């Protein structure tokens, strides 16, 4: 909005201490996880735990998940791509944990390239979150997509550069993975 000037940034700890005598407001803050905020607020604001793909066409019991914090697994994905069935509907999702701050305007962005040429870019809003009162991670499923199909789509692999970023440009996670289209999961 033209002329809008954001207020001074406060830590989650500062928000938790505002209006400390207001019982109703304290219950609301607790529901946001503000009372669960650790002292000092050190370390990353957000820890992205995994990226996953779900599809109604996946065989029962099959799960496609990438542990973002496992460097060896990420490195292996470059050599051994994930297999995605061509022409099926699937959803991408991520699991993440908010550690000690309120985050806002957080987005997941990925750019898909094939043979170095950009073929797709997706940007999905995660939203705004505080630390979970129970300490449990958040899970966000994105809008369904349809995988490409046809002989041309199946030849070669696709490289995806993924990133979780906020409106201020702070990058919480960045990783690369590869997939290949096949006739079967």
From TrEMBL:
<protein>
    <submittedName>
        <fullName>Rho GDP-dissociation inhibitor</fullName>
    </submittedName>
</protein>
<dbReference type="Pfam" id="PF02115">
    <property type="entry name" value="Rho_GDI"/>
</dbReference>
<feature type="region of interest" description="Disordered">
    <location>
        <begin position="128"/>
        <end position="149"/>
    </location>
</feature>
<dbReference type="GO" id="GO:0005829">
    <property type="term" value="C:cytosol"/>
</dbReference>
<dbReference type="GO" id="GO:0016020">
    <property type="term" value="C:membrane"/>
</dbReference>
<dbReference type="GO" id="GO:0007266">
    <property type="term" value="P:Rho protein signal transduction"/>
</dbReference>
<keyword id="KW-0963">Cytoplasm</keyword>
<dbReference type="InterPro" id="IPR024792">
    <property type="entry name" value="RhoGDI_dom_sf"/>
</dbReference>
<comment type="similarity">
    <text>Belongs to the Rho GDI family.</text>
</comment>
<dbReference type="GO" id="GO:0005096">
    <property type="term" value="F:GTPase activator activity"/>
</dbReference>
<dbReference type="InterPro" id="IPR014756">
    <property type="entry name" value="Ig_E-set"/>
</dbReference>
<dbReference type="GO" id="GO:0005094">
    <property type="term" value="F:Rho GDP-dissociation inhibitor activity"/>
</dbReference>
<keyword id="KW-0343">GTPase activation</keyword>
<dbReference type="InterPro" id="IPR000406">
    <property type="entry name" value="Rho_GDI"/>
</dbReference>
